[in-house]
Protein: DUF4440 domain-containing protein
Amino acid sequence: MQNEDGAEAVDAAFFAALVAGDVAALRALLTEDFLIVDVMSGAVTGRNGFLAALDGGELTFTAVEPAEVVIREYGGTAVVVGRTAMRGSFQGAEFAAASRYTHVYVDDGGWRLASAQGTPISA
Structure:
């Protein structure tokens, strides 16, 4: 089992891969049954749909700035809660959003992201 610093490092790697558009790195970081709840619409998307949107350029990130990160570890699960400021584009329209996020990681030989949810907040 990795320590809390390991989960924080993987969380940072997730955000870095988003900004880089590194679909291969994201594929390695996400569980097969990964789900994400969209911060803007509340839509639930699975791993394949999320990666396809990034790979096809439908969704891009120019910046993701996490802050106020808190990590709790429960056996083989780590829950990461933080705040982000992010900028990017979706279907060609630029966006900027501030959110609180919750990421759930599971340790299956290394931390992998199983679930992500963002809640919009005032900047």
